[in-house]
Amino acid sequence: MAILVNNETRIVVQGITGRQGSFHTKSMLQYGSKIVAGVTPGKGGQTVEGVPVYDTVREAMREHPEINASMIMVPAPYAPDAVYEAIDAGVGLIVVITEHIPVHDSMRFIRYARLNDVKIVGPNCPGVITPGECKLGIMPGHIFSRGSVGIVSRSGTLTYEIAHSITKAGLGQSTAVGIGGDPITGMSFIDVLEMFRRDEQTRAVVLIGEIGGDMEERAASYIKETSYEKPVVAYIAGRTAPPGKRMGHAGAIISMGAGDAESKMKSLTSAGAHVARTPAETAELLRKLL
Prior knowledge:
The chain has helices at 19-31, 57-63, 79-89, 103-115, 156-168, 189-198, 215-225, 261-270, 279-289; strands at 10-14, 34-39, 47-48, 51-54, 69-72, 93-96, 119-121, 127-130, 134-137, 146-153, 173-178, 204-210, 232-237, 274-276.
């Protein structure tokens, strides 16, 4: 049984009529994901790739009560309202692809989601994929293959690179979750590690972190304190980044002597995780462990 998404996932795409929304809707449909509705205010009655478009999520849910997941492809100024709309309509899983959402806005809708028992992946993330069952996001589906390695990552492109090496190594993935590169995200490494812990299909986990914040250190404490049973292979991006310099993601900044790659690698190693020095080494370590 996969985590977060599977062949039972029924999706509404918010922002489906936009350039990015329509492009990724087509890609997800080609992968086999079940997109049953789209939402763009004022565009109700149209269709995109054969998917009916509605003015509101509530209207889409009324016509398609089987909807249980949403993908937000709405520009940053309007994305928070799209998230609130999906929560209030009763959608249980919301993947927020949008980047450049102000941190305070993210904090508010993430808290609101938790109060309503709604799971949020993102913002500023590539989404979630369970190979062969469902792609809920913008990742290139062809590089993933069914297997036993769970991936949880703060970086989109590194997810693709490492997933590709795992596929080439013949191991494949159970589910890959891109939690997002912002300082505040709906799901943390710990949330996803706990899901993988309970998932019978997942035999090992790859944790892809980067400089900035303390999310990796907290994950290391969780692995150590709970005696995490499954092998964890970690890769931390940004080893050569200069302190005080923001690198790519909003969350990737070393400040006040905290959040650098070496401290994260040290924490994970002391927790019993196997830390790769390069992305390619991740698959080699997995092959030895499995």
